[in-house]
Design a protein that fits this description.
Blueprint: H1 11-17, E1 36-42, E2 46-52, H2 64-70, E3 74-82, E4 85-91, H3 105-122, E5 126-132, E6 136-143, H4 148-157, H5 167-177, E7 182-188, H6 194-206, E8 210-217, H7 219-223, E9 229-233, E10 240-244, H8 245-269, E11 273-278, H9 283-295
Parallel strand pairs: 4-5, 4-7, 7-8, 8-11
Antiparallel strand pairs: 1-3, 2-3, 5-6, 9-10
Helix pairs in contact: 3-4, 5-6
């Protein structure tokens, strides 16, 4: 990509995000005290259980009322709150360069990735990014350091779109790189074999990740709002097909609708969210609407 580091950042959107949190629905692993439930027990926010006192335990956590009844020392244990690992997986295959409405799916998706990274870093979470097409193209492990957003943007900037896609295979590689439980965010047009995609998603779920899929589409791809002769071009193979829009629109929209409904069923069966985004919709509105809806679940 030739864009500079500010292309995918929006100060207005970032300021709006400052009032939101991206919390994990499940249990995550982390190393800092923060917003998310940890599988490891420590002394923190929410009571978990009692255990017998051992030499060296902090006397502040002794349950003296229980001692008065049982004449034995017990200490309180609490569930620790921790930071999470956010794994952003960004599709940079050729089909993502589609730009019928003025902005390419790739630029839209990159801006979304930057916004999510900003949100995670603001709440002291570790965030990384993996770029994929027919395989993993670039990988930046999750960190919560000061300059991580700049490193993420530079990783995107320095990677060129790949002409071909094998999202199923590439996402399986992405899953291998997500080593600690957290949230896997997949940003893609999902133009691949559905069964292969689900195999990769199942691998992430097997590793106990929460998975969120942002499905980015161009309005022309989804709704075919055109009239007269139209030429379709496969951005990965360069194959072209000329036809009449009015003659194919009905069956085209039916096929796309059935595909989207199939994706919804398959993701829902795996407890995965699919958030559809169309590139002619303002990113800030689409993302904030999703975050408001997500926050209502907590």
């Amino acid at each position: 990509m030739t864009a500079d580091l500010t292309t995918f950042t929006s100060p207005t959107l970032f300021s709006k995000l400052d009032s939101f949190e991206l919390r994990a629905h499940g249990i995550v692993e982390g190393f800092m005290h923060g917003l998310h439930r940890s599988p490891f027990v420590g002394f923190s926010v929410e009571f978990n259980s009692h255990r017998e006192y051992a030499p060296g335990d902090d006397l502040r956590h002794v349950n003296w009322k229980l001692y008065a009844r049982q004449k034995r020392l017990y200490v309180k244990e609490y569930d620790a709150e921790t930071n999470m690992n956010l794994y952003i997986m960004l599709d940079i295959s050729g089909s993502m360069t589609c730009a019928n409405t003025g902005i390419s799916k790739l630029d839209y998706a990159s801006s979304l990735a930057a916004a999510l990274a900003h949100l995670a870093l603001k709440q002291h979470d570790a965030v990384g990014i993996t770029l994929f097409a027919d395989e993993v193209v670039a990988h930046l492990p999750p960190k919560a350091k000061t300059h991580q957003l700049e490193d993420i943007l530079r990783t995107i900037q320095n990677s060129k779109p790949r002409p071909v896609s094998d999202a199923g295979r590439a996402l399986q590689q992405c899953a291998e790189l997500a080593r600690h439980r957290g949230i896997c965010v997949v940003i893609s047009d999902l133009f691949d074999d559905t069964e292969a995609l689900m195999t990769a998603i199942e691998q992430m779920r097997f590793r106990s990740h929460e998975v969120i899929v942002f499905h980015v589409l161009d309005r022309w791809e989804r709704d075919l709002p055109l009239e007269g002769n139209i030429q379709f071009e496969d951005l990965e193979s360069s194959l072209r097909l000329t036809t009449h829009a009015d003659g194919v629109r009905g069956k085209y929209i039916q096929a796309v609708t059935e595909w989207r409904e199939q994706l919804d069923r398959e993701f829902r069966n795996r407890s995965v969210e699919r958030i559809e985004m169309v590139t002619d919709e303002p990113l800030d509105q689409a993302l904030l609407n999703y975050l408001v809806k997500r926050a209502a679940c907590f």
